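@channel anyone free to eyeball this complex?
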Amino acid sequence: MDRGGMVARYERIADELRREILSGVHPVGSQLPSEAELAERYGAARGTVRQAVAVLAAEGLVGSRQGARRIVLGRVRSQSFAELHSFAQWARANGHRFGGQVIEQCRRPASGAESVKLGCEEVLEVLRLRSLEGEPVLVERTVYAEWVAAAVEKLPADCESVTEALYASIGLVFAYGEHLIDAVAAGAVDARLLGVRRGSPLLRQRRTTTTHEGRPVETSDDRYRAGSVAFSIRNSIGANPLARQAGDLRFER
Amino acid sequence: MDRGGMVARYERIADELRREILSGVHPVGSQLPSEAELAERYGAARGTVRQAVAVLAAEGLVGSRQGARRIVLGRVRSQSFAELHSFAQWARANGHRFGGQVIEQCRRPASGAESVKLGCEEVLEVLRLRSLEGEPVLVERTVYAEWVAAAVEKLPADCESVTEALYASIGLVFAYGEHLIDAVAAGAVDARLLGVRRGSPLLRQRRTTTTHEGRPVETSDDRYRAGSVAFSIRNSIGANPLARQAGDLRFER
DNA sequence: CAGTGGTCTAGACCACGTC
DNA sequence: ACGTGGTCTAGACCACTGC
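replying in thread with the prediction:
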């Protein structure tokens, strides 16, 4: 009943189990204690313990099947939304040196697709170059909805984390995202900014982000230099949030 | 209590809600009924209803926050493990015409990295070319652990779904996967097989798959022609199984 | 057959949004 | 202040694994 500093009981149990996995108390391939044992050990109800191990399962650390004990699958934790959404938050969490710089920025009328996605007739487009360990690795072309444009324009050109800055300035929370990941050839601008040859491979992440209420905030086309970054997924036969999409990925901006 | 054909109650509730979302009863952006209402409507406990909406949340269809009603985020359902793991199952589920052909196949000693990943000293390497709508789109370089090699060698060269064939022949279930997604330039072999120029961009998915028990089955390096396929992710600020990984992705096979 | 995870219930209290 | 989702409990039955 006592939540001890407002962190849920199941979160604290999950933290402790995670520490035990990372520290080798439960090696990869070994079995976790049963739910009943864990419930007794932590003095919690079985349902609470189940919530805790569900967290670990979602992180890809443990697997489970009816009738058998849970198994430790690995030690590398899959990471959070923020790290997929925000380059700065990802880089910081992983201890990288990083930077960013606005190259170009302008208001313009929304294209047809943009007015549908963002629900407005005027947009702010920003071209940013971001670096990792001092090397340019990412070209970001972000289109912001009109209702956040003013706040974005107030940011410094070398703003490290746009996500955090917008939260600080107008309380904006990026809550949901949809992402499409594929590969494209570098165009002339990409090539110049990233210091690669035209036509060389780039990893592209296109995303649309909304607030808690489902209000669209931005769509972005982010291109990483090949070899600088990869996306990692851990999944199980149960369910997972990733899907392939076929063909006809013609470019429409 | 009656599970009616062994499908869980919460699954059937989730199915019905999903249908209502797809059919427009709950349009995108609208609020879902409260848990209490749903519990009454379905004559189920609140916990069961929560399990049902958790399914929809995992599929990216609805979002939730404490204190406010759940919101419908979209109508496109994120898909299952099988579709990320198996080209054939994905292609079939999405109504594509597809094919496959073994180009090369040989047994050889495992490299250092492979013997660690697969836990054996000899491996079977298979080079496959797969097509979508008659066009070659994917070069698959798969390395199988020694204990499945014999079963793989028995498959026909134009086997449509290796996953399904191995389940049929030896009851093998691919249960867990780890995937790394990035972009690379096409090598000479890739270029010839896919009919693109050398150096042109490819979307690469490297994966390692294990059984329910955590036993390694295969590692694979799959390369898609740019524009043929994209990976799609829906996520929320809560948690999700995707993460970026930085640099030094030098090729080690 | 015993043990384990999966499902379900009924009820409680709390934190947060909304009005 | 009220309604909503988030957390937690205690107990029950079932499906499956493994001996």
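from a first look: The beta strands of chain B are 62-65, 68-72, 98-109, 122-132, 135-145, 176-185, 201-210, 216-225, 229-236, 242-246.
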